[in-house]
Amino acid sequence: MAAAGIESGPVDGLAGPQTRIAWERWQDRLRGLTPRAAEIAHQPDVFPRQKDVPGFYGEPGTHQAMLDLPFPMRLAWDKGTVIRRFAIHEKARESAARAFAGIRAHYGEDAIRRLGLDLFAGCLNIRAMRGGKALSMHSWGIAIDFDPEHNPLRWGRDKARMAGPDYAPFLDIWESEGWISLGRERNYDWMHVQAARL
């Protein structure tokens, strides 16, 4: 992959997010796959548009705060590792805390685990968007990914687990706090919610 100009990160023996993303880029090269844009639903104006993120949130990676979780989560690429908190932008922290509390209240810990809603795939990660040069919303700690194994970047509603009816309340809770689901908005990257409008 390196010879093709695709960064896959250091070889560590784990099939984590970097490996999965590099594989998707390789597949895109081979198939010329382009995601089909879905109709854009109404987006609340709680948070800025992506183009206005730097002015609202500041420099990438700054103004981070720790978010304590109301239920334990597992790293999606190393399920034996449990996390109880993670770094997130201070302006998105309170809404995310309310969303996680709402998810726990709605589902309970057993259903959260059964549905894979406890599989954390990252928040703060200063990097470019997949397949582009612009910075990812993860660079500001305003995007959270869940269960990438069952919701890969290029999967649409026909395959992504998070597109199923059991997950509708999960996404409704995030949207009630002003977060955007890329799955619902664009029918790809169903694992991803962000505190920025498209």
From TrEMBL:
<feature type="domain" description="Peptidase M15C">
    <location>
        <begin position="131"/>
        <end position="194"/>
    </location>
</feature>
<dbReference type="InterPro" id="IPR009045">
    <property type="entry name" value="Zn_M74/Hedgehog-like"/>
</dbReference>
<protein>
    <submittedName>
        <fullName>M15 family metallopeptidase</fullName>
    </submittedName>
</protein>
<dbReference type="InterPro" id="IPR039561">
    <property type="entry name" value="Peptidase_M15C"/>
</dbReference>
<dbReference type="GO" id="GO:0008233">
    <property type="term" value="F:peptidase activity"/>
</dbReference>
<dbReference type="Pfam" id="PF13539">
    <property type="entry name" value="Peptidase_M15_4"/>
</dbReference>
